[in-house]
Design goal:
This protein is of the alpha/beta class. It folds into two domains: 187 residues, Rossmann fold (3-Layer(aba) Sandwich), CATH 3.40.50.150; 79 residues, Putative methyltransferase TM0872, insert domain (DNA polymerase, domain 1). Helix content is 41%, strand content 15%. It has 15 helices and eight strands. The chain has an eight-stranded mixed beta sheet with strand order 3-2-1-4-5-8-7-6, sandwiched between helices. Helix 9 runs antiparallel to helix 10, helix 9 crosses helix 12 and helix 13 runs parallel beside helix 14.
Length: 299
């Protein structure tokens, strides 16, 4: 089945992103995660000179074909991780960068991608370029202490050790093959909470590890320092504390740029979160946190 990813993906905090990025004609912007193209389209419709979008997912690249037809040379799509930013973007060459660090809805909704604990699919979880292991590789071959560490650090799962022990015990009889096999095991260990599936944190931890997500974010933010000029804008949308902590830490550290010392000045004094109306319309937006910064010379 071919999925229309532009229909499947609902851009989170899009109006607020535009207000903070403030795109204007004759300027060039980067959308670090094209996904279903929601941010890219919103920025292009402001009449900007160009949007250069990145995505590691081959499905997203295929979905971008219609954008090429609609926007022509004003749109460029690069099939690579956003951590490769400086490979394609010259220093001082773009006016704003937006990163949406969340997983795309179409990735979760497609059972064969292996991200969802609500559907039966292979234990995969690879987003695309840059992923070395599948989730099945981790669950079936890693040592108990390593599995526990992944779940504890990346999933922030308080029962990481107990889950890892159960995984090791179960795989002696039969290797894990599907998302439901793993989810069922976790649900037998972790107490259920209203509105929160017990498998959530384990699946989060595996996904982040498989796709090297936190290191990807750190590298992308570091490279943004040189790609943006003085006055350039950086906008981030994080979906859990680990991502948001990296953004906050990065924004607090001055950095060298040409012959100056620069720093990021927050645009929004408080983190921007979805309204109740948006959460009702798109429940997956509930944990989103948007931050915006301007690159300035440190005084």
């Amino acid at each position: 089945m071919v999925v229309d990813i532009q229909q499947a993906h609902i851009p989170v905090l899009c109006k607020e992103m535009l207000e903070i990025l403030d795109p204007s004609p004759e300027k060039i912007y980067v959308d670090g995660t094209f996904g279903g193209g929601g941010y890219t389209k919103a920025i292009l419709e402001k009449g900007v000179a160009k949007v250069i979008a990145f995505d590691r997912d081959a499905d997203a690249i295929k979905g971008a074909e219609s954008f090429k037809q609609e926007f022509g040379d004003r749109f460029e799509i690069i099939h690579d991780c956003f951590s490769a930013l400086s490979k394609y973007i010259a220093p001082n060459s773009v006016d704003g960068i937006v990163f949406d660090f969340g997983i795309s809805s179409y990735q979760v909704d497609e059972a064969h991608r292996g991200f969802s604990f609500r559907q039966t699919g292979p234990l995969d979880m690879r987003m695309g370029v840059g992923a070395t292991y599948t989730a099945a590789d981790v669950i079936n071959t890693f040592k108990e202490r390593d599995i526990a560490e992944i779940l504890r650090v990346y999933g922030e799962e308080p029962r990481a050790k107990k889950i890892a022990q159960a995984i090791i015990s179960a795989r002696k009889n039969k290797p894990f093959e599907t998302t439901q096999e793993l989810a069922t095991l976790i649900r037998s260990i972790v107490p259920s909470q209203e509105g929160f599936d017990p498998a959530t944190l384990t699946f989060q931890g595996l996904r982040i590890f498989v796709n090297n997500e936190l290191i990807e974010i750190e590298h992308a933010l570091q490279q943004s320092n040189n790609c943006l000029p003085i006055g350039g804008r950086l906008v981030t949308v994080a979906f859990h504390a680990l991502e948001d902590r990296i953004v906050k830490n990065h924004s607090r550290v001055p950095f060298s740029y040409q012959e100056s010392v620069c720093a990021y000045t927050p645009i929004n004094r408080k983190v921007v979160t979805p309204s109740l109306e948006e959460i009702k319309r798109n429940p997956r937006s509930r944990s989103a946190k948007l931050r915006g910064f301007i690159k300035e010379i440190k005084r």
